[in-house]
Amino acid sequence: MTERGIAQDILFLLIVTALVRPSGTYLALVFTGGRTWLDPIARPVERALYRLARIDPERQMTWAEYATAFVVFGLAGTLVLYAILRVQAPLATPLTPDLAANTAISFSTTTTWQAYAGETTMRYATQLIGLAGQNFIAGAAGLAVGIAFIRGLAGDGVETIGNFWIDVVRAILWVLLPLSVAGGIALMGLGVPMNFDPFTHVTTLDGAAQTIAQGPVAALEFIKQLGTNGGGFFNANGAHPYENPSAVANLLEMLAIAVLPAALTYTFGRVTGHRRDGWVLYGVMVALFAAGLGAGHWAERHGTMEGKEVRFGIDGSVLTAVTTSNGATGSTNAADDSLTPLGGAVPLVNMLLGEIAFGGLGSGLFGIVIVAMLGLFLTGLMIGRTPQYLGKPLGGLEVRLIVLYTLVMPITVLPLTALALVTRAGLAGLTVNHGPHGLTEIWFAYTSAFANNGQAFSALNANTPFYNITTAVAMMAGRFGLGVIALALAGILARAPKRSAAGAVPTDTALFGVIIIGTALIVGALTYAAPLVLGPIVEHVRATS
Amino acid sequence: MLWPAFSLTGALLLLTGVAYPALLYAVGRITMPWAAGGSLVRDHSGRVVGSAYIGQAFVSARYFHGRPSAVAYDAAGSGASNLGPTNPALADSIAHAGERFRATNGLASTTWLPSDAVTASASGLDPDISPETAALQIDRVTASRRTTTGAVTALVEAYTRRPVLGVIGEPRINVLRLNLALDSLDPVLPAR
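^ Those are the sequences you sent over. The predicted structure of the assembly is below.
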């Protein structure tokens, strides 16, 4: 931990904070049909897409219709990508069915977990049409769900929460595509290649032969962060010098992950008419993010440069580990596996808390709001009042959905981890590291898959039918399980007429922010204390004793 | 539901997976062909010797050496060792790398070594070393060339890149660029 590293962290958070209001305002305009400067270019394309897809832009959807469209769209993306991956032949080796299915689900759920090495497995066309394209589509669908969730809380006795197709199209044409054009060009300027050349063969200065893989990297690089996907063009992902050539490029890529999810708190406040509540959520995000940074820097203070790059150093690796693990984006710039035992636990804990510090695009917002609602329920029990959020009473049905949402992760991740730990097929994945570190490696894999994050303790040999199938199950549960519950909650809340806030627990105060943080930490600790002790903590104690 | 789902998927894939990369490719090709082409660098004779961003293996005494690599600087792939922090293999690998570094550079067994000199990077292709790792190699490089310690030290200094705005990133030296500059300083290579 150096002063320079802390200064870099602060600079990052200052830039994110400065962009929350302008970006959040823009998102609100885009999704409420306001005027933006992109309209002259984007409107004609939008209309053409609606004509082609036979979408009636006037039609609104109930939550059930919205959720069905979200799931069907996700499955369509999965099937198309599966087909692309399987027919790479005869031009390149097709992926095995289990690996192709795992990868297709991985990209259509924004997990972008990669059981393969990009540069040796994928053709350029597959990287672009299959993977980069899917980064846009799946990222847009995630943002759409976040927007629909906000509409649900803003709704006052209405049955509908928007139109999924319109939200997806607008997310791409007004948000992801224009930003990726600007960001992609900036990254090229910083050294990220964009070409279709075959791998370059050179004789090095010292007379050795070297083959240099490259390709259309820039077209994938920015959107993979912006859509909170994270799957790399190369095996080393964000550590590869062509993906992340300098600390400035790294900072830009981290901003691409954090800014839109952070800005959604402002969009939330603006659209619901409760701006202070939005800022409370943002404050909670910053506090949790800073806590992760503090823990990471502390844990890595005696860390080595094993699995880290000189241009980022230990501090820049911690900043990126914390941003990617909170941001549902797997593009780390260091090898998680070689972090100190507690340093490696930091990204794990960030994911287990539900990726609510900024979080995934769309999912971060509904994730933190649901934790806030859970906190209201718990405080309501203590003071004997019906909890109420933004004038919406949280009755029995709402609370059941909130509790179900909270339980999906542990009831998916823990049994799958246990299964891997007691089967030959599961333990066969541990080829490099064993003991408590091996347990962490397996648990991290399912957590990352469920959290739609995609980063890994990469020594785990995960390209086996066992891991390809089980991680795919976790990815689907994390994406569609949580997304559908969030939409159901949004639909039910939209239906309820707004009440006056008289007598309710105030939710626009710093104290409520503390309640949210306490709820997240207590629920997380109660759920995951045992494996945290058996994995990272035992390894830490062994390392220091 | 099915028609909108599949037709939108297809149309949006064309827009984002074909049109968008084509636009970026054109912009890169026209405005920054060198960076878009992978930042390939040439030696004084004009021969392409690698990429400015991709580390390569240096073994000759007259060159500065990069970090240990888990993929032996084979840039057709990339990756880390992924050795866990308490894996005995990691301690062994660091110990061996330390012995090798000290032997190569004629250092006493008590010399403190910077972490980056004895550990494998995350990509296996790290193009940089820390200024401390470079400093420990100056005497060995100077002894293998017809130049002075002062000249080599000045070159190392000149090729040290500082954190941007004083806070973004770490001090670092691109090994390939430093070695190319050394060759210009002292162009007549000793016989191998």
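The beta strands of chain B are 40-42, 48-51, 128-129, 160-161, 172-174. Residues 1-37 of chain B form one domain.

Shout if you want it in another format.
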